[in-house]
Structure formats: C-alpha cells, structure tokens
Amino acid sequence: PDEHIGRIAQQVFAERGLEVPETAIERVRRTACGNPLHAIEAALGAPTQAGQLSGTWVQDDLRTANMRGGAFERTALERFAGLSGQARLVAGVLAIAARPFSEYDLAAVTETPPGELAAAIQSLEEEHFIRRIGSNVTFTHEQYGRSVNGSIEGRERARIHERIAATLSGSASSNPAARYEVALHLEGAGRPEESLKEALAAADHAASVGALRERANALALADRVSRSGDPAITIHSLQNVISRDATGSISFSTRDQ
User: Fold this and answer.
1) Residue 20: phi, psi to the nearest 5?
2) Which of 141, 162, 206, 242 is a Cys-bridge partner for 189, taking CB atoms 3.0 to 4.6 Å apart?
C-alpha cells in the first residue's frame, strides 16, 4: 500500500510539473493513511513557492498528520475556491444533481456560453474534481461532490435546484424517473405545491407501467412534501385524495373530489 500511495503522489506531482524530494512523497504517505483519494488530494493541495514545492509543507507534520478530521475537505475546498466562478457553478450543479450530467444539460442549467462552459469543465478536470464518462461529466469521487455540496449556501442552492427542475421538465411528461427528479428539485427550490404535483404525477405514471419501486419513492416524496406546505392550500390547489390501502401505507391520487 505505501508503494502504491508513493506512486500516486509521484504521478500527481509530475502532472503539476514539480520535482519533489522523497521527503515530500513520505509526507503524502503519512497524510493519506493508505487512502488513494486522500493521497491525490494531499499532492494536489501541496502549496508551492516560486514554482517549487513549499519546504515548510514538507516538514510540517503538525498541521495535518492525516486526511481525517476535515483536512481532506479543507484542502479540497481551498483548491475549489481558487477556481473561476463558472467552474464553481458547474461543480455546484453536479453536486446538487448528485448524478452525471451531459454538457448540454450543464449549459442549460448554468446558462453558460459553450466556450466558457468548456473552459470551466477543463479547469475542473485539470484539478481532478471531475471526469468524463462518455458524453457525461461527473465527479472523480463522490467525496468531492459531498464537499462541494456542503459549501453551497442556501439561496444559491435553491436557485440551482430551480434551474435543474426547469431544465429537466421537458422530458418529465414521458418519463416517471425524470418527473420524480423534477419533483425533488422543486422541493429543494422551496416550491412544495409544484413538487407535490409532480410527485403525484410521477407515482401515477410509474403505477401505469408497473414500476413499483419508483411509485413508492414518488409517494414517499409526495407524503413528505405535503406535510411541509400549507395543507389548506395543498388540498385546494391539487384536489388530492389521501387514502390508506390494505397495507396501511399512504397512497395519493389527483382526481377531483
């Protein structure tokens, strides 16, 4: 394991154009504690001075003995903060979407011109935050997604949720999974009535094609959202009927009363 971690560190330092002493490789080994992702982050986050690795960092064993206790997130977010606003927005969309996104959808959600989007994606790739899978873009590791997600403040989070919902709504009418995803993002955008409407429609659609698990997920979301809003407004606007089936679970329908 130590040899593997050392090779990872050497590769990352080489990609950064740095010639480093063995003491730097050993520092990464100690920091990573056998975790390859933490080794990558340690080598990527190592500070430089005048194009050379900081000697202070190499010798400093006290600042972070390993990548536990928030050190991984700290160094990742320090690197993330140094990226352009467009790159941070792209990463934020991927973090909140919690799945791979195509460049087409990223362009629609971020409302970014193609050239700027390509530059943002490239910078995130160069910093090892994201990678391509076919025509899609995703995080290199879910831990980066969690770190970025946790750094997004409330209003920006709601705005991204709303933009994702708007982008996915075009395919929602023919796809229960997409409709469920739209409902989730409308919930995140603080629009419970619209979220409930989409969740109920997703449950009905899933039931019509025999997708029982998808129907159960949609009903669970509808139940949660219905409890978060104004009951009077919800009943009036959606005219939903809530009943209990033989198993005691809650089911919803959107037929008129």
Assistant:
1) -125, 150
2) 162
pTM: 0.74
Residue with tokens 């899978």: 133
Q: What is the DSSP string of 148-173?
A: HHHT--HHHHHHHHHHHHHHHHHHHT
Positions of the chain with pLDDT under 50 = 62, 65, 67, 233, 236-257
Task: Find how far residue 134's CA is from the centre of its chain.
Answer: 18
CB atoms within 10 A of CB 34: 12
Confidence (pLDDT) at 61: 53
What is the pLDDT, as a whole number, of residue 140? 92
At a CB cut-off of 8 Å and minimum separation 6, what does 215 contact?
203, 206, 207
CA distances from 68 to 35, 39, 78, 127 (A): 11, 12, 16, 21
Among 249, 243, 194, 245, which Cα is nearest to 217's?
249
CB 71 within 8 A of CB 39: no
What is the spatial distance between Cα 28 and Cα 46, in angstroms, rounded to a whole number? 9
Residues in a beta bridge with 27: none
Task: Kindly give the interhelix angle for 22-32 and 2-15, rounded to the nearest 10 degrees.
Answer: 120
> pLDDT tens digit string along 39-82?
888 888 888 877 788 777 766 654 554 545 567 788 888 899 99
Which amino acid belongs to residue 10?
Q
